[in-house]
């Protein structure tokens, strides 16, 4: 059993190779294909909020029934993330991209042709399952294709596309659909159109290779070298000529065996507190985000604005999401993760209280709403960057999926509390609740170790300093060792 704090020779060679390769055209192609999928995921995540007022008008759907559609979507997303994490660690990251996208498209089509409310609910469950798995595996894959100096920004770009552009453009997508199509069934077109571009992405996903980190963890050295050659050449297809052998440690006698996927490891040793603390943190940030996404259009309509105007106002407020994702992606290259999380949580708390008690006109609603969204997406993006860095490759997908699954559950349940707070105490009550969530997040993120600037192989083994600042005992590395069995 390896208990040293440094990674094995082959993993050091992998990290050094990725660092030398940098970011090539192949990286950009992989990123583009992954990002196309998560963009449409983000649109779908907003779908219940977009069609809510129209469903109320068309079917007389109650607020409670709309809330249930949101709850079932994010409950299914949690299950999808857990399942994807387990299968992704056992069978690879690449295959799960296609599976999740197929489920997502199928669910969207079921919603589009649903004859009754119960069928819409079934469709939303299927959508949620695919949506949750898609994000979890995308975060894991993007973190594993890059060296330490590029990893944070690469993962952050996912939420620039999803939490930023996706959330910001979703209300505009709703306005476009409801302008082009009229009548009580115009909400069907919104669901149906979401399925079409997602299906097109399946063609491009054929070109995405498995990550070299995963291949190496499974003992597939030759395949890992082939992917590294692809990345170095900048081409995902075509002749490579005479491929280079980047991982040569095994030629010198290092024994390579597939690493066991002991899923229980994410709840044992030093990894347990990482899983729990980041799970709590993501519950706070996701709960705040989905509460705003799902309730804001309905709240604005209740205040007397038209459906179209409410969606336009929501779009303006969601511009803060794009800013937040860009801030987090840029900060990931220069600032430690825990500092970004703590500062964003403090600013988010201040913005939430200001919105609840001071947003008395349209201008303040738009400005403060954008500020809250900016802080929320900064937090979410940084957690997405931080979470995969806490686990070794053999359980990285599962560990990351556990954390994101908890966020999905919170995304399904917190809007119910936020809606009740709004019904009883107005916007002041709802945004006071969101402010409390930010405080809880700021406390939780102090527990996991800082991983800024560390390699993916070094971080899980050596970053064992907890909130109190004391190093873990040497033996504690056993549970998180990348190659210790």
In short:
This protein has 16 helices and no strands. It has helices at 9-21, 25-45, 47-59, 63-91, 94-112, 117-144, 148-180, 186-205, 212-217, 221-233, 269-302, 307-331, 337-358, 362-386, 393-444, 459-462. Residues 1-6 and 459-485 have low confidence and may be disordered.
Q: What can you tell me about this protein's structure?
A:
- There is one protein chain.
- The chain has 485 residues and is an all-alpha fold.
- 74% of the residues lie in helices and 0% in strands.
- It is built from 16 helices and no strands.
- Helix 4 runs antiparallel to helix 5 and helix 13 crosses helix 15.
- The protein is globular and about 70 Å long.
- It starts with 8 loop residues before the first helix and ends in a 23-residue tail after the last helix.
Helix content range: over 70%
The percent range for strand residues is under 5%
Low-confidence stretches: 1-6, 459-485
Largest sheet: none
The chain-level mean pLDDT equals 83
Order of helices and strands: HHHHHHHHHHHHHHHH
Keywords for this entry:
mainly alpha, 485 residues, disordered N terminus, disordered C terminus
Describe the SSE topology.
Layout: H1 9-21, H2 25-45, H3 47-59, H4 63-91, H5 94-112, H6 117-144, H7 148-180, H8 186-205, H9 212-217, H10 221-233, H11 269-302, H12 307-331, H13 337-358, H14 362-386, H15 393-444, H16 459-462
Helix pairs in contact: 2-5, 2-6, 2-7, 2-8, 3-4, 3-8, 3-11, 4-5, 4-6, 4-15, 5-6, 5-8, 6-7, 6-15, 7-8, 7-12, 7-14, 11-12, 11-14, 11-15, 12-14, 13-14, 13-15
């Amino acid at each position: 059993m390896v208990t040293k704090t440094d990674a094995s020779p082959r993993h050091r060679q992998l990290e050094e190779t990725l660092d030398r390769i940098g970011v090539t055209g192949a990286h950009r192609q992989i990123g583009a294909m992954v990002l196309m999928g998560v963009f449409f995921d983000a649109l779908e995540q907003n779908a219940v909020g977009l069609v809510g007022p129209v469903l109320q008008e068309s079917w007389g759907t109650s607020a409670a029934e709309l809330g249930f559609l949101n709850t079932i979507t994010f409950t299914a997303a949690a299950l999808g993330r857990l399942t994807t994490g387990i299968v992704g660690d056992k069978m690879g990251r690449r295959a799960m991209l296609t599976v999740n996208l197929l489920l997502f498209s199928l669910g969207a089509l079921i919603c589009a042709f649903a004859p009754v409310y119960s069928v819409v609910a079934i469709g939303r469950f299927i959508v949620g399952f695919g949506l949750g798995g898609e994000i979890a595996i995308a975060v894991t894959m993007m973190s594993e294709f890059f060296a330490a100096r590029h990893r944070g920004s690469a993962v952050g770009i996912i939420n620039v596309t999803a939490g930023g552009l996706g959330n910001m453009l979703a209300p505009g997508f709703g306005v476009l659909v409801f302008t082009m199509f009229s009548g009580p069934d115009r909400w069907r077109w919104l669901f149906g159109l979401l399925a079409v571009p997602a299906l097109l992405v399946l063609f491009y996903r054929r070109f995405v290779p498995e990550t070299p980190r995963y291949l190496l963890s499974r003992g597939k050295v030759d395949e890992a070298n082939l992917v590294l050659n692809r990345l170095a050449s900048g081409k995902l297809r075509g002749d490579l000529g005479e491929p280079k052998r980047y991982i040569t440690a095994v030629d010198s006698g290092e024994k390579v065996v597939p690493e066991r996927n002991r899923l229980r490891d994410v709840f044992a040793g030093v990894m347990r507190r990482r899983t729990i603390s980041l799970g709590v943190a993501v519950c706070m940030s996701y709960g705040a985000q989905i509460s705003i996404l799902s309730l804001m259009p309905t709240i604005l309509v209740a205040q007397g604005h038209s459906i179209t105007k409410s969606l336009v106002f929501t779009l303006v407020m969601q511009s803060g999401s794009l800013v937040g994702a860009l801030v987090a992606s840029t900060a990931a290259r220069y600032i430690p993760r825990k500092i970004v999380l703590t500062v964003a949580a403090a600013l988010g708390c201040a913005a939430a209280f200001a919105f609840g008690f001071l947003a008395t006109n349209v201008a303040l609603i738009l400005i403060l709403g954008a500020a809250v969204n900016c802080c929320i997406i900064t937090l979410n993006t940084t957690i997405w960057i931080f979470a995969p860095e806490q686990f070794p490759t053999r359980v990285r997908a599962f560990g990351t999926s556990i954390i994101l699954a908890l966020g999905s559950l919170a995304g399904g349940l917190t809007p119910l509390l936020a809606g009740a707070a709004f019904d009883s105490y107005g916007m002041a009550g709802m945004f006071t609740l969101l402010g409390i969530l930010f405080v809880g997040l700021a406390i939780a993120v102090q527990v996991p170790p800082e991983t800024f600037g560390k390699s993916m192989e070094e971080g899980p083994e050596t970053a064992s300093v907890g909130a109190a600042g004391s190093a873990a005992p040497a033996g504690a590395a056993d549970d998180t060792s990348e190659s210790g069995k």
